[in-house]
Amino acid sequence: MHRHGDAVVKAVIGLDVGNTRITAAIVRASGEVLAMIRRPTDASGGANACYRQIEDMLGQLISTASERSIPISCVGVGFGGPVDYEGGRIMRSHHVSGWEDFPLRQLLREKFGLPVVLDNDANAGALGELLFGAAKRHRNVLYVNIGTGIGGAIISDGKLVRGENNFAGEIGHIIVVRDGPICGCGKLGCLEAVASGTGIGRRATELIQLGSIKTSLPKRSVTSKEVFEAALHGDELAMVVVDEAVEHLAHGLGIAITLLNPGIVIIGGGLSEAPEKLLLEPLRERVSKYVLDIALKGLEIVNAKLRYDAGVLGAAALAILEGGVNCD
Ligand SMILES: [Zn+2]
User: Fold this and answer.
1) For the chain, which terminal residue's Cβ has fewer other Cβ atoms within 10 angstroms, N or C?
2) Can you give the pTM of this predicted structure?
3) Are 151 and 18 in contact (CB under 8 A)?
4) Where, residue-wise, is CATH 3.30.420.40 in the chain?
5) What is the pLDDT of residue 324?
C-alpha cells in the first residue's frame, strides 16, 4: 500500500463524459494517473446507453483499485453540457438525447457508495489547469475552451466562480457581433458563433461561396483545421478568416479581462492546437485594443498545459478540490 507519512495515500476517480468519448482514470493528488479507460461515446443509444457505459467503466476501475489496495475517496465527473451543480443533475446535452434533468450524481453515489462531484467540463478543465497545469501558482484565472463550441470558467481568489445558475464564465455566449450569425443557443452574434471551430469553418465556407477572395480551399464546406492549415501556407481567404476570428476572440476576452482582472488566460480545446503564430501571438497583441494597460500588466495568455487527458485530469481535480474529502 502507498504510504505518505502516517496517512494512506488515497486517490480519486476522474470521469470525463464528452460528446465523442468517455474517459475514466484513477488519479493521485499529485496528478499521477494509475489506470485509465477510454471508450467512444455511444451517442446513438442516448443517455441510458451512455449511463451504462459510465457504470461499467467506473465498476472496472473500482475493482482495479481494490485489487491494488488503492483507496478511492471521491469520484469527480466533468460533463460536456450544462449541469445543475447543487442538485448533481445533468440539465441537457446538445449532442446526446435523454440527458434532460438526469440525476447522475445520485445514481452513481447509490451504485458505488462513494462521494461524487459533478460539474460541466469547462469548470473541471479550469480546476485541472489550476492543480496540475498552467495555472499553478495563480489565484485569478480565466479559462477558455475553444473547440466545436466555446466554453469558459473563472477562478477568482483561488475559487471557482459558479454564479447563481452555474453559468458564470460562459464567455462563448458574450455577444460580440450585434445581429451577427446565429449561435447554437439561439442568440445572434455570440463569440461561439464567430470564433469557435464551427464558426470559423462556417465563415470560410461562406466566403468561398462568395468567391471574391483568392483561395486554394475547395468549394465545399471546410473545417477550421483546413482553414488554419491553408492560412499557415499563406492562403489569402484563410488568413482573412483567421484574422476575423482572432479579432472576435480579442474582443470577447477583452470584456472578460476587464471584468475579472485575471493573472492568466488559458486557452484550451481543439483550437489551442493551432499554430501559435496564427492564434496565440496575434491574440496577445490584439487584446490590448480592448483592455486598459493596467489590467494587462503581468497578464499571461497561454495555451493549456494539459492536452489530450485534460478532461479526465480536470474531473479528477474537481474531485480533489471540490469533493470535500482529504484525498492525499
Ligand atoms: Zn450563444
Assistant:
1) N
2) 0.91
3) no
4) 3-127+309-322, 136-303
5) 67
